[in-house]
Specification:
The structure is a single chain. This protein has nine helices and four strands. The protein is mainly alpha-helical and 210 residues long. It has a single domain, classed as Transmembrane di-heme cytochromes, Chain C (Fumarate Reductase Cytochrome B subunit, Up-down Bundle), CATH 1.20.950.20. The strands form two sheets. The chain has a two-stranded antiparallel sheet with strand order 1-3. It has a two-stranded parallel sheet with strand order 2-4. α1 (10-34) crosses α7 (150-177) and α2 packs across α5 (111-135). It starts with a strand and ends with a helix. Bound molecules: protoporphyrin IX containing FE. Protoporphyrin IX containing FE binds at residues 23, 26-27, 30-31, 33-34, 49, 52, 56, 59-60, 124, 127-128, 131-132, 134-135, 154, 157-158, 161, 164.
């Protein structure tokens, strides 16, 4: 049996699933709040709104704790998207568009993953700003009017929800086609040594490829 290496620490795994659950709750309750007829996921508006209001604080704490943890554990070194990561995109795009069988050895996360994980933190920030403007309409009235009005905030909040729906779907799809070992690693923390997170028939060193 292949030797297993410890890949995801316990705090990273807990935060991953807590944040995932909160995004799921915020998306489903949010869609219900938007239109309960089209998205009949809950028994009542009261349940959906209360759940949204609890999950909105939990996701903010969840993201802040994850950022704090990435600094204390130093895993920001693998997670932080840097401008130099842009150079890795062409090879990644060619691979996912089936134009190449080679995938450079990017390390723990490829540039697409880093970009997405960082972008989610930024998107949560915008969801929090637009969401709190809706939550405290009187306190934020002047600011919302200056920035386009409450309706615009509501539409931005709703549009960003779709960015989450699409990108989370891509993330889940890619995790599953990565195989059970990839999905399991986020539960147990362990991943077989020598295997790669992204499926690839050939693999070349990142410096050879870029
Ligand atoms: C991060 C902090 C967040 C805050 C403070 C927040 C706050 C709010 C508030 C106050 C409302 C209006 C509720 C009502 O009118 O009863 C709302 C609606 C909604 N929220 Fe959030 N929310 C947050 C995050 C999210 C996230 C992450 C998503 C989805 C990914 C989301 C999706 C929605 C949707 C779809 C609606 C309905 C918008 C509409 O009616 O057009 N929210 N949110």
């Amino acid at each position: 049996m292949a030797k297993e290496m410890y890949y995801h620490t316990l705090p990273a795994r807990i935060l991953h699933w807590v944040n995932a659950a909160n995004i799921g709750l915020l998306t489903t309750t949010g869609l219900y709040i938007r239109d309960p007829q089209v998205f009949p996921f809950f028994a009542s508006m009261d349940i959906a709104r209360k759940t949204h209001f609890i999950a909105m604080y939990l996701i903010i704490y969840g993201i802040l704790i994850r950022i704090y943890y990435s600094y204390v554990s130093k895993d920001y070194r693998e997670l932080l998207f840097r401008p130099g990561d842009l150079r890795g995109f062409p090879a990644l795009a060619k691979y996912y568009l089936f134009l190449s069988k080679e995938l450079p050895d990017y390390g723990k996360y490829n540039p697409g993953q880093k970009f997405l994980y960082n972008a989610w933190a930024v998107l949560i920030f915008f969801q929090a700003v637009t969401g709190f403007a809706l939550y405290f309409p009187n306190a934020s009235a002047q600011l919302t009017r200056m920035l386009g009005g409450p309706l615009l905030f509501r539409q931005v909040h709703f549009m960003l929800t779709w960015v989450f729906i699409v990108t989370v779907a891509v993330h889940v799809y890619l995790s599953f086609i990565g195989g059970w070992t990839v999905v399991k690693s986020m539960i147990t923390g362990y991943f077989p040594e020598g295997e790669h997170m992204q499926p690839s028939s050939e693999r070349v060193g990142i410096n050879e490829r870029l």
